[in-house]
Amino acid sequence: MTEPKPDLSRLKIDRDRPPQGVSRALRRSAYIAAAAIVLFVVIFFALRGRGGQTVQVALAELVGGGAGVSTGVTANGYVVARTKASVSSKITGRLEFLGVDEGDVVEAGQVIARLEAEDYAAALAQREADLATARAGLAEAEAERDQLVRDVARAKDLLARGLASNQETEQLEAQLATAEARVERLRATVAAADAGVGVARANLENTEIRAPFSGTILRKDAEVGEVVAPVATGSGLTRGAVVTMADFETLEVEVDVNEAYIARIHHGQPARITLDAYPAVDFPGRVRQIVPTADRQKATVLVKVSFAERDERILPEMSATVEFLEDEGGVPEAAAQPRVFVPAAAVRDEAGRQVVWIVRDDRAERREVVAGPVTGERREIRSGLSGGEQVVVEGSEGLEDGARVKLATER
């Protein structure tokens, strides 16, 4: 009996189709790779959306009119004393005594220093002796004259009665005239000697250096033992001043105001003064003087603003910023209109055009504006902004319109 042949077709390997297990593994790997790619793309764009160039911004300030409201005009300057002096001696001499120090308060006429006075005291004594000698000589001459006056009177009486000659009378009259001339000469000598005494006494008094006004000593310019003179020689051997003093009651701020804004400033206008030493404190002030000339180099006008009240914290030469305020009827109508101001650093010049970068919805926007001159650290925007915009003051280099940005204050 013949056995049937085995079916070997089932043992044939189908090389065109992978095994079922391998196929499932390949599909799983493909799904994982695709998911990884999608996740990478999502993370990339998310991180890109959160990034961007970092910029620092400030708000465009809208300044309106009204009493006590800022005119938008600010200026920088320094505190100075209207009454200030470098006190020197009237004569040359060696400093013997210096009775003040920096910060001391002195009264007008108070002796603050003294020069060596022995030579001047001796000169005064000599002049007084010369005066005494001259007065004694005058008294002697007057006595001789008076005697001659009596002798001439007797001679004339005797001549009238024929008891004396004309020659004797004429000789006495000549002697009387000579005596009177000598008296006049000695009177002039006495006057000159008296004037010499006055000069010597004045020189002696000038060895005492007195305060010309009430104030505070700012600086000592000489020390005991140095030679001081009314004018320094420049050789370093003499000093031209002993101390420098100022009256703190006359402290004020001198600022340079751009001439484009000087029409908004007037005498008596209120102002707000801020010192760099005390940035959180505002000191009220008022315009005292507008110097009637401009500086052609800086295109500015000097304005002097006085403090409303004396404050012990205010010192000469402090840096100050003055913000001029509006009062009722104090400024022109045009100055009372609302204006927009931005930090001066926010305005850039590009190809002859003035440009400001603003930030809106985390994106940079280029805005062309018309800007006025710089006053203080701010600049007026006459058109292009309405106020309240976030303007870029730092980090605008390389920005493109519409680029995503990140504020420097963000963490």
Number of strands: 24
| First-last Cα distance | 94 Å
> Which oligomerization state do the chains in this entry correspond to?
single chain
Low-pLDDT segments: none
Q: Structural class, from secondary structure content?
A: alpha+beta
N-to-C series of helices and strands: HEEEEEEEHHEEEEEEEEEEEEEEEEE
Q: What's the mean pLDDT score?
A: 83
Question: Architecture of the largest domain, according to CATH?
Answer: Orthogonal Bundle
Helical stretch tally: 3
Beta-strand percent range: 35-45%
Q: Write down the domain tally.
A: 4
Helix content: 25-40%
Assign an overall shape.
rod-shaped
Radius of gyration: 48 Å
CATH fold name of the largest domain: Helix Hairpins
Instruction: Kindly provide the name of the CATH class of the largest domain.
Output: Mainly Alpha
- Write out the CATH superfamily name of the largest domain: Helix hairpin bin
Question: How would a textbook summarize the main sheet?
Answer: 9 strands, mixed
Question: What does it look like?
Answer:
- The protein is built from three helices and 24 strands.
- It has helices at 20-50, 118-160, 166-206; strands at 53-59, 61-63, 70-81, 84-87, 93-98, 105-106, 111-115, 208-210, 215-220, 227-228, 238-239, 243-246, 251-258, 270-275, 278-295, 300-307, 319-325, 339-343, 347-350, 353-360, 363-375, 378-383, 390-394, 405-407.
- Strands 1, 2, 18, 19, 20, 21, 22, 23 and 24 form a nine-stranded mixed β-sheet that branches.
- The chain is rod-shaped.
- It starts with 19 loop residues before the first helix and ends with a strand.
- The mean pLDDT is 83.
